[in-house]
Amino acid sequence: MAGVHHGLGLLLVLLLPAVPASSPGTVVRINRAALSYVSDVGKVPLQHALKIIVPPFLDWSGEMLQPTRIQILGVHVPHLDLKFIAGFGLHLMATANFTIKVFSVPEPLELILPMTLTADARVAQGPIRTPVVSISTCSPLFSPASVLDGSNSTSPMLLVLVQKHVKAILSNKVCLRISNLVQGLNVHLGTLIGLSPVGPESQIRYSMISEPVITGDYIALDVNAVLFLLGQPIVLPLDAASFVLPWPVGVKGAMATLGLSQQLFDCVLLLLQKAGALNLDVTGELNSEDNPLNTSALGRLIPEVARQFPNPMPLVLKVQLGATPAVTFHPHNATLRLQPFVEVLAVSSNSAFQSLFSLEVVVNLSLQLSVSKVKLRGATSVLGDIRLVVAASNVGFVDVEQVHALVGTLFEKPLLDHLNALLGMGIALPSVVNLYFTNPEVFVYEGYVVISSGLFYQR
Ligand SMILES: *[C@@H]1O[C@H](CO)[C@@H](O)[C@H](O)[C@H]1NC(C)=O
Ligand SMILES: *[C@@H]1O[C@H](CO)[C@@H](O)[C@H](O)[C@H]1NC(C)=O
Ligand SMILES: *[C@@H]1O[C@H](CO)[C@@H](O)[C@H](O)[C@H]1NC(C)=O
Ligand SMILES: *[C@@H]1O[C@H](CO)[C@@H](O)[C@H](O)[C@H]1NC(C)=O
Ligand SMILES: *[C@@H]1O[C@H](CO)[C@@H](O)[C@H](O)[C@H]1NC(C)=O
């Protein structure tokens, strides 16, 4: 089993494409409250794991060898407690009661065997850059069993021998079962590096970049996000300084705290721009009340347009984002600055496109962030005014003031709708399979975003 895991790990390492040296920083902090949650939901799997098969007890005391069947009827874990060990990992303390049936003659015997289990586990960065938990010490400690039924007919000698037998078997197997449980957890944690779609041809993948930082209050994973466009990693032109998330930050007592650096957002916007996802064409239709994009409307403002197009023809606004949108995080608010290049074209009589003029536009948007499921979503609205400058004209003088009302308002709504649809799809946050964020809250700080959230594990 271990060999198979190792081989798989090696394969995944070979498949990972070279990651750009500078990488947008993300910090995932798992806080103490998450350990209480794990302690809660972990009892049932622990109980299952401890249902161990005990071989029959061979009684040598009589005249002939008597095999006595023994069965663990149930395991109850009344108490499970997890703590962080600074600089190392986790400490586990659990108590369990085994209900054991001994099929002795003439009467079966039922025992309760209490156990206290302590274990330390190291949390480290694994070979495929996911967190790996490994048990370093594990010691089950048994207390004397209490007899529920059938004590009258059982010799005290048999009781002592049976207990010795059961304890010997359990001592061997309990820690093995705990290790298996942890192996399953590691496979699960390995899904951190799964690729998640960002857009049609783009994906994001998170992986650890260093050993986790462990204090008495949290485990922090420094995670980098690599964005892929058509399978190729996107390299940020700016050099990414390492991102440090202050402590404490966000909601006190939250299970998880995520810190997302500005670089992650820059990288996502660069990806969307490179993918051309931010470009759009706004097309006018003739004889439509709500879309007055036609040459006769424009001809009233620009005589040359009226001269060239005596018959009304539809207009097309080609909106392209040459410059990457820039996001800025101030305390409590986020803004997005777009600099679209808008080309105004008319469909001429031979249905070819004819460029009339082009505009350089600057628009500031306010960006609201929210989390749903495991995705960070955005919504924008226009902040202040749209600034237009004429870049080129084939129709003589263009009065910006005059075309502002027509062109500015006409591309504003489609651009916002387009952008909001795109940002509304959201980008996957670092997570593992079946783990969801609950009641997430988003906070904007100078230069970074913090998400405080509960966690919910769905089997
Ligand atoms: C488990 O064992 C402990 C110690 O013997 C006892 O105090 C406790 O009541 C037991 N719990 C159950 C559910 O049997
Ligand atoms: C065990 O012994 C007690 C008295 O010592 C008696 O009351 C009880 O019925 C006996 N139980 C069984 C199962 O024989
Ligand atoms: C052109 O747009 C104007 C509104 O600016 C509208 O009244 C007119 O009907 C449109 N013309 C055509 C032919 O669609
Ligand atoms: C955003 O915050 C900054 C600094 O706190 C402030 O100067 C700016 O006016 C705010 N903008 C909005 C749209 O609230
Ligand atoms: C956009 O915001 C920047 C910085 O806050 C400001 O300097 C600029 O004038 C704004 N532009 C527009 C078009 O509102």
Structure overview:
Strands 1, 9, 10, 11, 12, 13, 14, 23 and 24 form a 9-stranded antiparallel sheet that branches. Strands 15, 16, 17, 18, 19, 20, 21 and 22 form an 8-stranded antiparallel sheet that branches. Strands 4, 5, 6, 7 and 8 form a 5-stranded antiparallel sheet that branches. The protein has 2 domains: about 35-190, Bactericidal permeability-increasing protein, domain 1; about 200-440, Bactericidal permeability-increasing protein, domain 2 (Super Roll), CATH 3.15.20.10. It starts with a helix and ends with a strand. It has helices at about 1-15, 30-50, 155-190, 260-275, 295-300, 305-310, 400-425; strands at about 25-30, 55-60, 65-70, 70-85, 90-100, 110-125, 130-140, 145-150, 195-200, 200-210, 215, 220-230, 230-235, 255-260, 280-285, 315-320, 325-330, 335-340, 340-345, 355-370, 375-395, 425-430, 435-445, 450-455. With about 450 residues, it is α+β, with helices and mostly antiparallel strands. The chain contains 7 helices and 24 strands. It binds 2-acetamido-2-deoxy-beta-D-glucopyranose (5 copies).
